[in-house]
């Protein structure tokens, strides 16, 4: 993806107030981030409130940012589960159920969409083999890395569509 500036990020959020988007914590290493080419989306957690995470992806109309929350109760961690974006299986809390409020009035009324996702939001790196999952975490697949990246982007796009509509 193209490198994002602080302004890009803060103006990209679709499912929180403009005020919240101005205040939310940015990734610590944003200025030094040098692996944009390996990212399909930028994801990070709020270090002071680890149940809050953020994700920004590129879409045709520009960057789209989402606020996410880990489900309450054991923070949504599962013993062994598969990420629904990159299809990596993790044990010991490596996948968690995150929910995103829907955009607009539906979200203000409390409607949200859930997603089982890598807790570290490093799906892009797992797909590219830049970050290793535990043994057995990545299925043997006949798809090329490019095809798996396409699938990841498609899965993420479908999630975004559910938030926007
Ligand atoms: Zn993942």
In short:
By secondary structure, the protein is an alpha+beta fold. It has one domain.
Shape: globular
Number of strands: 7
Strand order of the largest sheet: 1-2-3-6-7
Percent in helix:
10-25%
Q: Which blocks of ≥5 consecutive residues have pLDDT under 50?
A: none
Tally of separate helices: 5
> Which molecules are bound besides the chains?
zinc ion
Biggest sheet character: 5 strands, antiparallel
Number of domains: 1
Helix and strand element order? HHEEEEEEHEHH
Structural class of the secondary elements?
A: alpha+beta
Q: How far apart are the termini?
A: 24 Å
Q: What is the overall pLDDT average?
A: 93
Instruction: From the alpha carbons, calculate the radius of gyration and give it in angstroms.
Output: 15 Å
Percentage of β-strand residues: 25-35%
Q: Could you please describe the fold and organization of this structure?
A:
- With 165 residues, this protein is α+β, with helices and mostly antiparallel strands.
- It has one domain.
- It has 5 helices and 7 strands, in the order ααββββββαβαα.
- The chain has helices spanning 6-10, 18-23, 104-108, 123-127, 145-164; strands spanning 41-46, 49-59, 62-70, 80-82, 89-91, 95-101, 112-118.
- It has a 5-stranded antiparallel sheet.
- The mean pLDDT is 93.
- Bound molecules: zinc ion (ZN).
- Residues 83, 85-86, 88, 117-118, 123, 126 line the site of zinc ion.
- The site of zinc ion has 8 residues, from strand 7 and helix 4.
């Amino acid at each position: 993806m193209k490198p994002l500036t602080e302004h890009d990020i803060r103006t990209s959020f679709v499912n929180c107030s403009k005020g919240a988007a101005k205040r939310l914590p940015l990734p610590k290493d944003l200025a030094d981030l040098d692996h944009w080419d390996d990212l399909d989306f930028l994801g990070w957690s709020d270090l002071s409130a680890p149940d809050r995470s953020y994700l920004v992806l590129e879409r045709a109309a520009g960057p789209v940012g989402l606020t996410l929350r880990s489900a309450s109760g054991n923070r949504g961690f599962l013993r062994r589960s598969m990420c629904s974006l990159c299809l990596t299986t993790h044990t010991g809390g490596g996948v968690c159920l995150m929910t995103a409020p829907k955009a607009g009035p539906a979200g203000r009324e409390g409607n949200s969409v859930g997603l089982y996702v890598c807790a570290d939001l490093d799906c892009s790196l797992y797909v590219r083999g830049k970050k290793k999952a535990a043994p057995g975490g990545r299925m043997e697949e006949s798809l090329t890395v490019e095809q798996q990246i396409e699938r990841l982007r498609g899965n993420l796009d479908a999630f975004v569509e559910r938030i926007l509509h």
